[in-house]
Write a structure and sequence with these properties.
Strand content: 15-25%
Low-confidence stretches: 1-24, 220-273
CATH topology of the largest domain: Coagulation Factor XIII, Chain A, domain 1
CATH architecture of the largest domain: Distorted Sandwich
Radius of gyration: 21 Å
Pfam families: LPMO_10
Family: Belongs to the polysaccharide monooxygenase AA13 family.
InterPro entries: Cellulose/chitin-bd_N, Starch-active_LPMO
Protein name: Chitin-binding type-4 domain-containing protein
CATH class of the largest domain: Mainly Beta
Number of strands: 12
Helix content: under 10%
Keywords: Copper, Disulfide bond, Glycoprotein, Metal-binding, Signal
Structural class: mainly beta
Distance between the termini: 73 Å
Mean pLDDT: 78
Shape: globular
């Protein structure tokens, strides 16, 4: 109607735009433990695993490819080349073994996981663990067992924002994997911003990371990451009464990847908010936490952190 009122035209344009936004691509990746397509970006693993410069887009071909319920186990298209599965371009464990293991955790420990969303489409995260007994064994969908948060919840609801999110999940106490046996920790992101359709009408992502679960983590096992800290803001799940925070034995819940050659120590409380207290390294006042293994320069690059070292 050429006589359409301006307000009506604006409204229809807004509705059309919203429908486009709903179906635009989401993007995200697992930073800690570093997934197979991302780990090559970290200096410690440079030259061992190639870099996937689209490591935040492993949606198994998008909704068109997954609407029938089929997908590659680690985010590759179901009918395509499985580059991110064991033995693929980025799944280098059969070749390099422990040299490409991105993290080592204690059995039964509560671990800090780190996810970056570069295009947030609401929804939820969930995580699974698959133990592979042989060096050339490959993960399958049936192998993955769901992990839960300390509260028992398996789904982590995504808050708004394009940023780095941290969440805690508990590893099974009866599972160990090291040497030629290793475990695959998988992130699964289900976006939920497409109205009126089920999970197969939502965009989904999968990332796989090679990890060890062992009582002897440390001396020769790789740490979760060795990248330079980013300058992103601290982002954590908003407090929820059904999801109490439990003590962690893994790396600190700061959305950066501290450069180090040994696993970071557990945060130790500093007595006076805003001051260093007993902290002699990198201090985070909102949670009274002290993070060891950082340099003054690295600490200064992260907003909200204060250098308290000599």
């Amino acid at each position: 109607d050429i006589n359409m009122k301006p307000t009506t035209s604006i409204l229809l344009s807004a509705l059309a735009l919203s429908s486009v936004v709903d179906f635009a691509d989401a993007h995200g990746r697992m930073l800690s433990p570093p997934h197979r397509g991302h780990i090559g970006r970290l200096p410690k693993f440079s030259g061992l695993v190639p870099i996937n410069y689209s490591d935040n887009g492993l949606s198994a071909g998008g909704i068109g490819g997954t609407k029938g319920g089929k997908h590659g186990v680690c985010g590759d298209a179901y009918s395509g080349v499985r580059e991110h599965e064991t033995g693929g371009t980025y799944g280098r464990f059969p070749i390099h073994g422990s040299k490409v293991v991105g993290a080592c955790y204690a059995p039964g420990s509560t671990v800090d996981l780190e996810i970056q969303l570069t295009a947030n489409h609401k929804g939820y995260f969930q995580f699974g663990l698959c133990k592979l007994s042989g060096k050339d064994d490959k993960e399958t969908e049936e192998c993955f067992k769901a992990l839960a948060q300390p509260s028992g919840e398996t789904q982590w609801q995504v808050p708004p924002g394009n940023q780095v999110f941290n969440m805690k999940y508990v590893l099974p106490s009866g599972v160990t994997c090291d040497g030629d046996s290793h475990c695959v920790l998988r992130w699964h992101y289900v976006g939920w911003n497409n109205y009126g359709v089920d999970i197969n009408g939502q965009e989904q992502f999968w990332n796989c990371a090679d990890v060890y679960i062992s009582n002897t983590c440390g001396a020769s096992n790789p740490t979760p990451s060795s990248a330079k800290p980013s300058t992103s803001a601290v982002a954590t799940q908003p407090p929820r009464p059904t999801q109490p925070q439990a003590p962690s034995t893994s790396k600190p819940t700061i959305p950066t990847q501290p450069p180090q050659t040994s696993a970071p120590s557990n945060p130790t409380p500093a007595p006076v908010p805003g001051q260093c207290g007993t902290c002699a390294n990198c201090y985070y006042a909102p949670t009274n936490s002290c993070y060891a293994g950082w340099s003054a320069t690295q600490c200064a690059e992260v907003p909200g952190l204060k250098w308290c070292g000599a």
